């Protein structure tokens, strides 16, 4: 059991110099081969020196992460990119110049300097430059590229606040830099530029519509949410092979309670919820993960107390999570993981989640929802609402 140290820095209030000073102890731990969690604009990551194979192995042990799941290497200046790759294709350079720092990860040809523990033995490496002052200051102070997956136990919802990291990895890592809540709330887009046309391996904060104008002929693979993803199946790689990017092969983003997705257009989802609330299934407390619009439509059934705080509240025999408006999916994406984690502090036995158009940031949102549900659709296996346990 490690003594997990914590440092708090408010990037909104502190000066650049104050942020740089605050991360010095954490940077020293990274240089010495330790593990430090830190905020990015997407989610919190748990980092190690990307060039230290033993340190990288410790990430997998702390998270309980499968060893064939590659890691993203984080940098904070252009000079740090060169040693990691064998070359920067012109298209990759154009994309990086447009979207870095930011929530775009590029799959590039890896140099021999990058340990196999980072790449899962693949000839490519995933690299991004995060757009967060604390992350940038930490990486620069460490003086090494930082390999960092999300800072949660493998399979659980990603952390968007330092308290989430402490819940999952307290005692397992050396330190946590608390920089407040994350702005985007879902992980970066992973784009493979070693194939033609480029392929989105994981949708995220940079959408297909944002990428397309920079691509030859606007050609792009992997848009939207595939039928495999909707069925909760791994995508993109044959059985037995390492996935090309994080988030492709294994169960992810799942709270303790089973998640079920509402099928069909929004009006049909509301009608199904109305029937479910009127005749709830046996087998434990039911959780609902819905939008503000759905709450208004069901206002006669779901009374929201004036004293309700946070993303969850109890309404009779239900626990209701509100994640924002359907017309503002960036807000829904930002609140999704926080809400899924909040359900773990309740007695919800199952969670029924509203679904959204897989367009723009909605593609990332639906990718995460489909993976958290693992292919389960509401109502659960008519007619008995059988819940897998």
Structure commentary:
This protein folds into two domains: 5-230, DHBP synthase (Alpha-Beta Complex); 258-373, Rossmann fold. The chain has 13 helices and 15 strands. The chain has helices at 16-22, 24-31, 53-63, 90-99, 116-119, 133-142, 162-169, 208-211, 227-230, 266-278, 292-297, 329-343, 361-373, and strands spanning 5-8, 36-38, 45-49, 72-74, 104-109, 124-128, 146-147, 175-178, 189-192, 199-202, 258-261, 285-290, 312-315, 318-322, 348-353. A hairpin with a 6-residue loop joins strand 9 and strand 10. Helix 2 crosses helix 6 and helix 12 (329-343) runs parallel beside helix 13 (361-373). The two termini are 30 Å apart. Residues 234-240 and 382-389 have low confidence and may be disordered. One of its GO terms (biological process) is tRNA processing.
Radius of gyration in whole Å, from Cα?
A: 21 Å
Roughly how much helix do the residues carry, as a percent range? Answer: 25-40%
* Series of H and E elements: EHHEEHEHEHEHEHEEEHHEHEHEEHEH
CATH class division of the largest domain: Alpha Beta
Task: Give the overall silhouette.
Answer: globular
On the 0 to 100 scale, the average pLDDT is 91
Structural class: alpha/beta
Distance between the termini: 30 Å
The CATH architecture of the largest domain is: Alpha-Beta Complex
């Amino acid at each position: 059991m490690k003594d997990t140290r914590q440092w708090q820095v408010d990037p909104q209030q502190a000066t650049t110099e104050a942020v740089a000073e605050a991360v010095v102890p954490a940077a020293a731990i990274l240089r010495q081969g330790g593990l430090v969690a830190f905020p990015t604009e997407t989610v919190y990551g748990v980092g190690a020196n990307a060039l230290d194979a033993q340190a990288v192995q410790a990430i997998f042990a702390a998270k309980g992460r499968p060893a064939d799941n590659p890691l993203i290497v984080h940098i904070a200046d252009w000079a740090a990119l060169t040693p990691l790759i064998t070359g920067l294709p012109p298209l990759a350079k154009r994309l990086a110049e447009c979207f870095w720092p930011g929530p775009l990860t590029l799959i590039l040809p890896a140099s021999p300097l990058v340990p196999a523990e980072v790449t899962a033995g693949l000839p490519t490496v995933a690299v991004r430059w995060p757009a967060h002052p604390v992350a940038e200051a930490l990486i620069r102070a460490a003086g090494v590229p930082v390999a960092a997956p999300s800072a949660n136990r493998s399979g659980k919802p990603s952390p968007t606040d330092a308290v989430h990291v402490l819940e999952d990895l307290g005692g397992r890592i050396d330190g946590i830099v608390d920089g407040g809540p994350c702005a985007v709330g879902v992980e970066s887009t992973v784009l493979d530029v070693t194939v033609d046309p480029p392929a989105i391996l994981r949708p995220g904060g940079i959408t297909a519509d944002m990428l397309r104008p920079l691509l030859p002929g606007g050609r792009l693979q992997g848009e939207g949410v595939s039928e495999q993803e909707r069925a909760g199946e791994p995508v993109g790689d044959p059985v037995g092979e390492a996935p090309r990017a994080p988030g492709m092969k294994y169960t992810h983003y799942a709270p303790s309670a089973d998640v079920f997705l509402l099928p069909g257009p929004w009006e049909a989802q509301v009608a199904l919820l109305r029937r479910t609330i009127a005749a709830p299934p046996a087998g434990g407390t039911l959780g609902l993960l819905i939008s503000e619009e759905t709450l208004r439509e069901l206002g006669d059934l779901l009374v929201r107390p004036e004293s309700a705080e946070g993303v969850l509240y109890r309404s009779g025999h239900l626990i209701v999570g509100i994640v924002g408006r359907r017309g503002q999916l960036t807000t829904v994406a930002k609140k999704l993981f926080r809400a899924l984690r909040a359900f773990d502090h309740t007695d919800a036995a199952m969670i029924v989640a509203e679904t959204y158009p897989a367009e723009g940031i909605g593609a990332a949102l639906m990718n995460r929802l489909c993976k958290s549900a693992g292919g389960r659709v509401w109502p659960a296996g008519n007619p008995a609402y059988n819940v897998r346990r």
